[in-house]
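INFO batch 0412 | record 1 of 1 | parsing
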Amino acid sequence: MVMPINVNLSDLNLPLLTPMLIAISGGLGILVIDLIKSNLHKSLYVMLALMIFGADLVTVLGTAQGRGFFDLMLFDGLSIVSQILILVASMLFIPLALTSKRFHEFSYPEFFALFVFMVAGLQFMVTTDNLILIFIGIETSSLALYVLIAMHNRFYSFEAAIKYFTMGAVAAGFYAMGSAVIYASTGSVELWQISEALKLGSENSNIILITGGAVLILIAFAFKLSLFPFHTWAPDVYEGSSAPLAGYMSIVPKVAAFTVALRIFSIYIDLGLQSVQSIILILSVVTMTLANIMALVQQDVKRMLAYSSISHAGFVMAAIAIGTTKASTAIFVYYALFMFTNLGAFTMLWISRHKVKAFSDRFDHPYEKFAGMIKIVPMGAVVMALFMLSLAGVPPFSVFWGKLYIISAAVDADYIALAFIMALNSAIAAYYYLKLIVYMFLKDPIKSVDTVYYNISKPLMVVVGIAVFVTVGSVFFFDKLHTYIYTMMLAAGF
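INFO prediction complete | emitting tokens
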């Protein structure tokens, strides 16, 4: 006789699902509103999206930590910190939809619904330690993002969406194979159970399967994080996307991917599997070095920023291999500071636009476009220079504190050579950031002022103003930010 299974709703702890349900319900609500009344102004959908993300953020901050929904959901300090970064960056991005009439995708309610669904998928990724649910979150967010890129409706956008879809499919295959190998060697898809099984398996012949599964999943995340040699899609995809969406892609999906990577690979690091740790370190060093070298020879500012983002991802990846609480904290401290500066830099590409390629037959944002910008839009040149100095790691701007914290984490863990390589790469990166500053301040305009239309609308000014405030004023709140994230990481066991 089969005994009935009694499910106690209080044990399910369903409130842990509330943040994701808010996002999903909000996306469905936007579609329903469009069905009832079409052709509404995009400002309504911008306000709705901001309300959804605001309510989501308040719920994340107010939800108690714990497990729920048949232990599939894990709401811990790591989940809270990553969701805060995802939602804050999303709230910073959405108002940019009001900046221009030229970008028609912002007139479609489908754009905002897909964007909200993408955020919900990213939240599922970071709020679980179940390999299957992580996969569902990855695919939910990725499928929405493919369409968002293609909605830019240019040849390069369609090409970018196809490339991103192809690379995403390959990454999904590697992730599925890696998860299958881990399940075969441990008998579970729950990370906490996998951790217990690996402690036993690492002492016998399963070590080959254990390492093989880790390598397959690492390849999958190398695609997602655009680590060498799986980075080749990133510059083309960023170039084909609108500038703000490219900036968003360089931050938020990577925050979610780093969160999942930290959950998975911290298990292997804690076990002392030197092979996995060494592979991560090699990927990190090669990625940051080669991306910097490639950025040096770029002729387009957007592609330069794309390679710059790849280099920053390699820089942060080293923190996972270091494996200390300080290093884990450094990942999110770095991206909390980096996201404002990088999104601001990509957004600044939007202050000038032209329907034809007036400066280059190949690129939309060649360096020549910014020549003499100080004489045409002085404030714009100053703001862009602030972002470049911050990305270069010049004190006292925000990214400097993130780089310094990661390097200090490496030194504290006796990775002196790694710290030296990081410092050397920061010095190399300073060249191509300063190159743009030289064009803006020391060269004469190549074209007349009438050639370029400068779009300095109020929403753009607000977003850029917030980014500048954080970039310049981070020195005053860095300690509080670090303390909060460190406490969360410590509570979550990282």
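INFO post-check: The chain has one domain: 14-492.
INFO record closed
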